[in-house]
Amino acid sequence: MIKGQVTFDAARRPLRGIGTLLDITEHKRIAERLAASEERYRLAVAAFHGASYETDLETGYAYRARRAYEMLGFHPEDGEPTRDWWFSRIHPEDAPRFHATLEALFAGDREELDLEFRMRHANGEWIWVWQRGLAVRDPAGRLKRTVGAILDITGRKRAEAALRESEARFRHMADSAPALIWMTDAAGQITFANMHYDFLFGRPAEEMLGEGWREVIHPDDIEPFFSAFKEAFIARRPFRSEFRVRDKEGRILWLRCEGVARLDDAGAFLGYTGCNVDITDAKVAEVRQQLLINELNHRVKNTLASVQYIASQTLRNAATTEQAKGAFEARLMALSRAHDVLTRENWEGAGLSEIVAETIEPYRGLGESRFRIDGPQVRVQPRMALALAMAIQELATNAVKYGALSNAAGSVRLDWGIESGGGQPRLQLRWEEREGPAVAEPSKRGFGTRLIERGLAQDIDGEVRIDFAPSGVVCTLDAPLPQPA
């Protein structure tokens, strides 16, 4: 830089010049660095989307960048807002905390200001701002000025509120669900369990966190369950398992546990989310179904064996094909009617009165007075019910052909009772034919007689006797009476 002075004569002609030449290279460099620094500061503030501010306590000068006013919907052209005006925009609920922080800054109790609070926008709405500031003090520690920045965080606050609402909805739905909902972290530890755990196990859901699950799982299922979960967890694949737990009343329940891996937007593994559903009723039904299938197979085999035996003996003892056909059909119908009674009772037993009524139904056409039935209500097991039905069928068929039901005057009396003396109750049944043709002891026992005396006795685990008295056939039965299942 050159500075100097020129001397002129009377005619204004230059005579001489005196001056200095200064090296301002360093000054230029400093100016350039300052300009660059100010440009960086300007760009940083612009990128920050916030506004800088500075308050000089000695001069009272308060500077706020243009952006600070724009946040509130005002422009500097509208007039320079005062410090009191700025403070008046703060929400009444946030103002005490804001001023208390400033007082602590002035008193030297703190060196930083870091606050989030609401301010009223020019349109009347409340916006959220974040103010961050530092205290600048003189060597004596007195506060000279404060500098900092202000940022509009309304969008973030709304997002946080929306997230809280979403989390609240999730918790409400999860806690209202009639299932056990859970979440793990990336290490496999339970971090969330809904309130249904409290309902089912009678203990706070918090106790399920970590590995609290082990406390409720059936001891025999702990290792298989956690082994299967660990295998799925390592592979990050869907998990499914069924295991037993003990509820708050001590009952053993079956749960089906299903879970899937949870990933963030970048695909990073966060843990598992899943639910456990009570499948106890389904398990009980499954066991019952299998029992029913096994029972059905057993009954079908027994029925086929009975039919095969009846067919074989009927054909062997019949004189003609027509006779065999009639006898076989009658015996099958008796067996079918007994099955009908047992089916109505789910094969858990049958009433003896119903078995008798169904068996003699085909013979009611001979007249109501031909049968006199009397006996208490007695339930018998399926095996005994079928055997009694077949025996009564044989006795009735024989009575129609040769006995008391073969004429117009004869009748049959069928009664039974329970003998309770000596421990286990015993069924005592008597079939007695009256006023029929004279009866003689047959020279040969037929299939029907053998079916009664041998088959019935074996099926009821008791004693059966047939007497061919001249006045009519008498059949007596004495057997233990086990209770139906």
> Low-confidence runs (pLDDT<50, min 5 residues)?
none
Largest sheet, order of strands side by side?
4-3-7-6-5
Please write the CATH class name of the largest domain. Alpha Beta
Q: CATH topology of the largest domain, anyone?
A: Heat Shock Protein 90
Radius of gyration: 52 Å
Strand content: 25-35%
Overall pLDDT level: 81
CATH superfamily of the largest domain: Histidine kinase-like ATPase, C-terminal domain
Can you tell me the number of structural domains? Answer: 4
CATH 2nd-level architecture of the largest domain: 2-Layer Sandwich
Biggest beta sheet summary: 5 strands, antiparallel
Task: Give me a quick take on this structure.
The protein is an alpha+beta fold.
Fold and architecture overview:
By secondary structure, the chain is of the alpha+beta class. The chain folds into four domains: 1-48; 49-158, PAS domain (Beta-Lactamase, 2-Layer Sandwich), CATH 3.30.450.20; 177-278, Beta-Lactamase; 285-480, Heat Shock Protein 90 (2-Layer Sandwich), CATH 3.30.565. The protein is built from twelve helices and 19 strands. The protein has helices spanning 25-48, 66-71, 83-88, 95-106, 154-176, 196-201, 219-235, 280-317, 321-344, 352-360, 382-401, 447-460; strands spanning 2-8, 14-21, 50-56, 62-64, 112-120, 126-137, 143-152, 180-184, 190-193, 239-246, 252-263, 269-278, 350-351, 371-374, 379-380, 411-419, 426-434, 463-469, 472-480. The strands form five sheets. Strands 4-3-7-6-5 form a five-stranded antiparallel β-sheet, sandwiched between helices. Strand 10 and strand 11 form a beta hairpin. It is rod-shaped. The mean pLDDT is 81.
